[in-house]
Amino acid sequence: MMTITAVLDKSILAIYRNSVVSRTLVLKGGSAIRLFEGDASRMSIDADFSAEDRIDDEKCFFDHIHKAISQAFRNDGLDVIDFKHVRRPAKAKKAFPTTWGGWQCLFKLVPHEFHERSMETQRRNALIPEGSNSSVIEIDVSDGEYCGSKRSKTVIGVKIQCYTT
C-alpha cells in the first residue's frame, strides 16, 4: 500500500523529469515545505504548483503531465485512469481579477492487473493511498502567479523548484 505522501512525491518528481512542464512549474504549499524544509509534520493530500505565466495550450501541457505521471507509476505496476484537468474557478468571479485562477488535475491509480477489465471494475479497484480518504489524486496549478522567490533543490536526482511563504 502506498501512502498519499509517496504518491505525491512520485508525481512531483515525474512532473519535474518532464522538460516541457518543469520549466513552467514551481512547487508550493505543504509538499514544498516537506520536501525543502524536511518538515514531515506538514501533511498534504494534494500537490500545489504555481506558474508565473498563463498556461496557453492546456491540452498539450496536461498531456505532458499525464504522460510523465503514467510512466512513473507504470514501474510500480500501476496505471493512471480518469486523468482530467479542469479550469478553476470554472467561471471568473466579479470580485477577482480576470487573470486569477488555475487548474485542477485529477487522476486515479489502479493495479495493472485490471487494465483489460471494464472501466467500472478499474474504478472500483482504484488505489486509496494510506492517509487519504479517496482514490482521486489531486494536483493544483495556479497560473499567472508570482514565483519570484523560488529556490531549487535536487531530490533523488531530480531538480525541483519551490517557493514557501
What report would you give on this structure?
There is one protein chain. By secondary structure, the protein is α+β, with helices and mostly antiparallel strands. The chain has one domain (4-162). Helix content is 30%, strand content 29%. It has helices spanning 4-17, 19-22, 29-37, 58-74, 119-124, and strands at residues 25-28, 46-51, 78-88, 102-111, 137-143, 151-155, 158-162. The strands form two sheets. It has a five-stranded mixed beta sheet. Strands 6-7 form a two-stranded antiparallel sheet. A hairpin with a 2-residue loop joins strand 6 and strand 7 (158-162). Helix 1 crosses helix 4 (58-74). The longest helix is centred in the middle third of the chain and has 17 residues, at 58-74. The radius of gyration is 16 Å and the shape is globular. The termini are far apart. The mean pLDDT is 90.
Number of helices: 5
Structural class: alpha+beta
> How many domain modules?
1
Q: Can you list the strand order of the major beta sheet?
A: 1-2-5-4-3
Look at the structure and give the mean pLDDT: 90
